[in-house]
Amino acid sequence: MPEESAPTREQAGEQAGRGGGARRWRALAVCLVAAFMTLLDVSIVNVALPSIREGLHASEAGLQWILSGYALTFGLVLVPAGRLGDARSRRAVFLAGLGLFTLASAGAGLAPGIGWLVAARLVQGVAGGVLTPQVAGIIQQLFQGEARGRAFGALGSVIGIATAAGPLTGGALIALAGPDEGWRWVFYVNVPVGAVALPLAWRLLPAPVRGDREGQDVPGLLLLGAGVLVFMLPFVQERQWTGALKWLLVPAGLALLVAFVLWERRARAPMVNLALFRFRSYALGATIALLYFAGFTGIFFIFTLYLQNGLGYSALGAGLAITPFAIGSGSGAAAGGRLVNRYGRPLVAGGLVLVAVGLAGAWIAVEQHPGKGVVWLTAAPLLLAGIGSGFVISPNQTITLSEVPYTEGGSAAGVLQTGQRVGTAVGIAAVGSVFFAAVGGARPGAVEAWASGFRRGLVVILAFAGCALAAAVADLVAGRRARAAAAARDGSDAPPC
């Protein structure tokens, strides 16, 4: 019997659309478990930092690199990994990322010193960045229409729950294993999950697609990587690098990104198809994602600092206080995935309004009662903000990728998620600088100083949410004008009565 060749892109698309419904959803479940692991590791480490400091005698710079190193390497590889999965095999790239992430997690848990742990976190970030864009690409390949909206809704639930549940999970592990060993289990917990997910992914994910085998865009890879790295560094190191000279890296990074765009326009096999930005849904959706993530992740950063340093909460207590947001985000994303095909961008705009109202309610609660009982007063506003967040993240991703050919799904998702990582770095730097400026030299337990920092940080987060809402409204207005122009053209083409 002759060896069966891999299907072409067109054949794979037809096969994906024809059936295998139960298998598709099982494949999605494996993807979501892996995505949950990588996203959880963005926030789970925050509450473990005090234990890591004590256990490894780590400096502030070392602790900062445990957080920022993961974010940097994660963001650097998203686009090239997405492109590689599109061109070769999403399953193979997914498996490589998942295997590397599992091994790096084990290495982080075994770390004898801070240098080892930072190196393991850098590798974890690379693995997470390799794996993550394959998930969106596989959803694009396996699902169409309303089912795609539900699949992205499930992914949105994972994003919201993983980000918000990180502090709770980390706090619980530290409470169970103790402060000396608990931080190690923050990393070890990924190992059995990865070990089970690997064989399931091999069996359930779609077979490789015979894509274009043209050479990789090495100049584009170098320009994009250098641009993202140089641009993000001053933001992720904002508190460690004193002085204003670091901000010169921002225009330098922007110049490299402009050079990347100019190169991609003339490259024979570009890493990113710039024609994607001609789709209004993609260009404005990516803008909304960047702006929203700039505020979204800052919420957990300053809230946990306020509760732990200002009010003396334990890591577990601080994690529990964020649970209402996680519950709201998960339920909102699941509902948003079902509703997005019916309501479209107005659903995203409505979600942003709910986020703004919920965060304003949290601001009022802290203003009125900054002491220990504040977690009960912020529960309902955070639940509302979480529901709104669920209406933003997954519907926006569905709409943003709706006009993207599935053969470009991984690289398109990589660009979208790179924007989210850049937004996260910029947002945390902006929110953190306002927060720490208000806190000043206040000692732990100085309630009013830490509460004031939290309220001022919320103002910055609300500003980012407002800018994202403005982008959503601009999309709505542009859509109405386009429909009106189309209706006018149809009317003018109609034969006279």
What does this structure look like?
The chain has helices at 9-18, 21-43, 49-56, 60-87, 90-109, 114-142, 145-177, 182-188, 190-204, 218-236, 249-266, 280-310, 315-321, 323-343, 345-368, 374-400, 409-439, 447-493. The protein has 497 residues and is mostly helical. It folds into two domains: 9-208 and 271-482, Growth Hormone, Chain: A (Up-down Bundle), CATH 1.20.1250; 218-270, no CATH class. Helix 10 packs parallel to helix 17. The relative contact order is 0.13. The model is unreliable at 1-19 (pLDDT under 50).
Précis, in short:
By secondary structure, the protein is mainly α.
Q: Top keywords for this entry?
A:
497 residues; 18 helices; mainly alpha; Growth Hormone, Chain: A
> What is the fold-level CATH name, i.e. the topology of the largest domain?
Growth Hormone, Chain: A
Number of domains: 2
Q: Helicity, in percent? A: over 70%
**How do the helices and strands follow one another from N- to C-terminus?**
HHHHHHHHHHHHHHHHHH
Structural class: mainly alpha
Would you report the number of β strands?
A: 0
- Main beta-sheet strand count, sense and barrel state: none
Strand content: under 5%
What gyration radius follows from the Cα positions, in whole Å? 23 Å
**What's the CATH first level of the largest domain?**
Mainly Alpha
**Which architecture of the largest domain does the CATH hierarchy give at level 2?**
Up-down Bundle
Q: Judging from the principal axes of the Cα atoms, what is the shape?
A: globular
The CATH homologous superfamily name of the largest domain equals: MFS general substrate transporter like domains
Question: Number of helical segments?
Answer: 18
How widely separated are the two ends?
66 Å
Mean pLDDT figure: 83
Low-pLDDT stretches: 1-19
Instruction: Name the quaternary structure.
Output: single chain
